[in-house]
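Schema walk-through. Below, the input block comes first and the output block second. Nothing else is stored per chain. Lengths vary across the set, and this one has 90 residues.
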Amino acid sequence: MAENSKKTKVIGLVLSFLIFLVFIYIISAEPFPYNYIAHIAMIPTSQPDNLGKYMSQFLWNYRGLDLLMQSILLFSTAICCLALFQREEN
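--- output ---
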């Protein structure tokens, strides 16, 4: 039984590492939009008129990434809850 538990832990570790690598790949493939903004515009002294337009455009353009991260978070939360309620056999 101890060998099966060890095998499960190794598989979980490998899957977690693969999910992490996919996350890093997705993040590195699409740069965050701060590259396009001048340093002065990052700390504005007055509110621009079209801020809402750009903010909603960013949120809708990166919606797939948001949904992917939410699904990974919910899946990992469910796995962790199942692990907490696992019965221990003597």
